[in-house]
Amino acid sequence: MSILEYLLPNLPWVATVVAVSDLIIILVAIPWILAIKKEPSSAVAWCLVVILVPLFGFLLFLVLGYTHVYRPLRKKRRHRARFRARNAPAGMAPVLSKEVDVDPAGTYLRLGEVAIKLGAFPVVGGNEVTLYHETQPAFTELLDAIKDSTETIHVEFFIIQPDETGQTLLDLLKSKAKAGVTVRLLYDAIGSRRLSRKLLQSVRDAGIKLAPFMPLDPLRRRFQINMRNHRKIVVLDGRLAFTGGMNIGDEYLGKVKRFGYWRDAFLRLEGPGVLGLQRIFAEDWDFAAGESLQGEKCFPQLKPVGDQVVQIIESGPDQELNAMRELIFAAIAVAKERIWISTPYIVPDRGILDALRMSARFGIDVRLLWLFKPDHQLPYYAARYLLPELLDEGVKVYQYSRGMMHAKYMIVDGKWGWVGSTNLDNRSLVLNFEANCILHSPPLLGELEEAFRKDLDESIRMEAKAFAGRPFVGRMIENGCRLLSPLL
């Protein structure tokens, strides 16, 4: 007897079972959602999904919406607390000398002091920073630096693709491990899901210490695809570091036709500021691999090598207040002349959206640079729904037309800014673990501003009147996507 032949005579009974089951699920799920979701819009959106999509709505919530997985988050907090307790004050002492320490209250608009209150590392001078506005030179410099490393190589990426570019990096890491260098590789289990077991085993066999970040494991109730490690960090011999928005894969070097030219922001950091990135990697590694990194090899004495001032900040769902969200809001609120932001995704919460609108209303030059051809449709159309609010207030919005815009950076008044992995969307500002390098040196920020202006030359400015005349079908798509924006 087929399933259909069984169901037809018993359809009323099956319908009753489904209806009762769905009612029970709704009665259980709604209080659960309301208890977990702090943001009202997110709570309402998920409640509607559970009510309007029988049975499957609750499954969607478990997979996509249940972001507060308490056990992993509590474990992450405990690991970080234990690590900092074991490594303080010795872990920070090498850089907190009079030669390199900077008074955070003396930074532009005291944003350095604000960042520290949000959990950022100290503001330190004595650094040498190289900004990369092209991904090929950034990747080449990264490989060259890895080749020159002699003791430790720490690599942490959201995405490592099993393509030519990814294989190039992995082959180099294998050769360094075989040469006696300690190599640790941390990858996100979802972002790097294309890495096969065979490939990962070959990495282990080469002597590389390997760990996935929050892998999916239904047996241990780990089936969340949210709360991903979106950081991009490489630390070599504890003295040299790279960070920014670039992942590892052919598309990031402009080798994939679908995306074309890939615009990203990446930087090389040498000096006392490296310790902050090393600490972030060490805390993530302690959580994912259960290995505590200590000693001179990981945390060497770092002397001044330049005159640039930086500050490292991390953020993530393990924080009571997301540090980057709060810092971005603070920077927008205190800006006096201009706020320039580059991001592929513009789906912020209402607070940041209103702060941008209010700044433009006060005559501040607010510019947002984002993509023209989307890599993800849902956040793209959700952003299009929000744009009229910004355009009508005088915010200048540009779409990068040369290729894929993936660079994440912000400049305030030409005197404060950051480069990192944080996007201007709910996923980055609430759900993901991020890392950013704050720049307090005007010459560096001047270079970043020049890169922004160059990007604008290759972009199309959106006009409020023209955008208001977009097709009705497009508006409906935007409306549907914006309803899902709290779920992003």
Extract low-pLDDT stretches.
Answer: 89-96
| Share of residues in strands | 15-25%
Number of helices: 17
Question: Terminal Cα separation, in Å?
Answer: 43 Å
With strands numbered from the N-terminus, the spatial order across the biggest sheet is 4-3-2-5-6-8-1-9-18-16-15-10-12-13-19
Structural account:
This protein has 488 residues and is of the alpha/beta class. The protein has 3 domains: 13-65; 70-99 and 130-304, Endonuclease, Chain A (2-Layer Sandwich); 323-487, Endonuclease, Chain A (2-Layer Sandwich). It is 43% helix and 19% strand. The chain has 17 helices and 19 strands. The strands form 3 sheets. A 15-stranded mixed beta sheet has the order 4-3-2-5-6-8-1-9-18-16-15-10-12-13-19, sandwiched between helices. α8 (164-178) links the parallel β2 and β3. It is globular. It starts with a helix and ends in a 5-residue tail after the last helix.
Brief synopsis:
By secondary structure, this protein is α/β, with parallel strands linked by helices. Helices cover 43% and strands 19% of the residues.
Please describe the topology of this protein.
Elements: H1 3-7, H2 11-36, H3 40-52, H4 56-65, H5 70-87, H6 111-117, E1 124-132, H7 135-148, E2 152-157, H8 164-178, E3 182-188, H9 197-205, E4 209-213, E5 233-236, E6 240-244, E7 261-263, E8 266-270, H10 274-289, E9 308-315, H11 323-334, E10 338-342, E11 346-347, H12 350-361, E12 365-371, H13 377-392, E13 396-400, E14 403-405, E15 409-412, E16 416-420, E17 424-425, H14 426-431, E18 434-439, H15 442-457, E19 459-461, H16 464-468, H17 472-483
Parallel strand pairs: 2-3, 3-4, 7-14, 10-12, 11-17, 12-13
Antiparallel strand pairs: 1-8, 1-9, 2-5, 5-6, 6-8, 9-18, 10-15, 13-19, 15-16, 16-18
